[in-house]
Amino acid sequence: MAETPEIIIVKKKAAHAEHHGGAWKVAYADFVTAMMALFIVLWLMNSSSKVKEAVSGYFKDPMGVAKKAGTNKNGAGDFASLKKEDMRQLKDQLMQSIHRLDPLDKLKNQIEITITQEGLRIELMESAKGTFFELGSAKPTPALEEILKVLSGELGKLPNKISIEGHTDSTPYALTRVYDNWDLSTDRANEARRLMQDEGVRQNQISQVRGFADQRLRLPKLPQDPSNRRISLIVQYQVKDGSEVSSPELDHLKAQSATQPTAGTKP
Q1: Does 58 fall in a domain?
Q2: Contact (CB, 8 A) for 217 and 228
């Protein structure tokens, strides 16, 4: 009897279609990202100014480093710019700090803080007996050292530049030209700078130190009044490019941008 031949069954697997690449996934992800960005822009356009500022602040400082940045003589860290609308708040804050130092308001008539075109102006005015400097000298009194310590602690936290001015009254300093009111006003302003930089104001925060002698009297009709002898600290406004400009320079810029320029104020 013949043997039945072994039957061999060969199964062929159908070839799969060629594997597609993943380029479409990248394109789809880009499309979704673009749509999300579009929706965020449309949402921001209809949001309040506070929301816009908050979102802008996040992208500028996502880790919140600016709020924790230290303030010392080496650098200010990442600070928010102090603009004109913030000056009133700073004024109130400084007045509270001064009141804590002088709860009886003994220096009330010697300290004046005003908001001007240049920025926040802090005037430390002399009395007839001398409050902040020894009479006829650039040597500071303990009262000046204490008040500048308080002010420097607050102003050193700011990104804004500070200019310092020295002023005298019209009483001639002496019968010699070796040392006069120009020298005295400049030396007093420079001494204030040294004290402030020792107490927290950064080295690069002081933009100007100027002495005006009796050329900018506080009381022009009373040229020999003691209050004309004063130190002025000006916390300057910041402009868009981050630089600092004084009042005459601001007027000059406004005159240039106007259709019919007008004369700037006298420096």
Answers
A1: no
A2: yes
